[in-house]
Amino acid sequence: MKGKVGLVIGLAAGYVLGSRAGRERYEQIKEQAVKAWHTDPVQKQVDKAKAFGTSAAKVVPGVLWDGAKRVTTAAGGSGSVSEKAQRAAAAAKSAARDVADAVEDSLEEAEEAATDSASGDTKTSSDTKTGQKKADETKSATSAGS
């Protein structure tokens, strides 16, 4: 899909920049682009992208921070360099899984939000704090492992 969109944009830009049709043709193309932008399928995708961006912006930094703290803690402490490296690697793998899970959860929430907004449903869930839940799970797992 990304390739098709890029191709269309590239062709349109090339036509406009390379054409001798002038301002009138440019205005026609611009008008068609605006019409396409306001179609339902395009706006549904825009809503999905906005919802994902918003939820990911809330979720991912907290999970990343917790993961970084776990890796730093694992790399510190006593033991040989190889033991510290192994602990840090294990913590990094675990943190990467947590980030992937958080992003996946965020994506699912974004899709639900986009579906709700596209259908006109404005209900809100009190349980949409995926990032906070992930951070709490991470803290409890870290505390239990220490």
Break the fold down into its secondary structure elements and pairings.
Blueprint: H1 2-18, H2 23-37, H3 40-75, H4 81-119, H5 130-145
Helix pairs in contact: 3-4, 3-5, 4-5
Give an account of the 3D structure:
Residues 90-146 are annotated as: Disordered. The protein contains five helices and no strands. 84% of the residues lie in helices and 0% in strands. The chain has two domains: 1-38, no CATH class; 40-145, no CATH class. Residues 122-131 and 142-146 have low confidence and may be disordered. It is elongated, with a radius of gyration of 23 Å. It is mostly helical and 146 residues long. The chain has helices at 2-18, 23-37, 40-75, 81-119, 130-145.
* Net shape: elongated
Outline the biggest β-sheet.
none
Estimate what percentage of residues fall within beta strands: under 5%
Radius of gyration: 23 Å
Uncertain residue ranges: 122-131, 142-146
Oligomer: single chain
Q: How far is the first residue's CA from the last residue's CA?
A: 46 Å
Mean pLDDT: 77
The chain-level structural class is mainly alpha
Summed up, the domain count is 2
Order of helices and strands: HHHHH
- Strand count: 0
Helix content: over 70%
The number of helices is 5
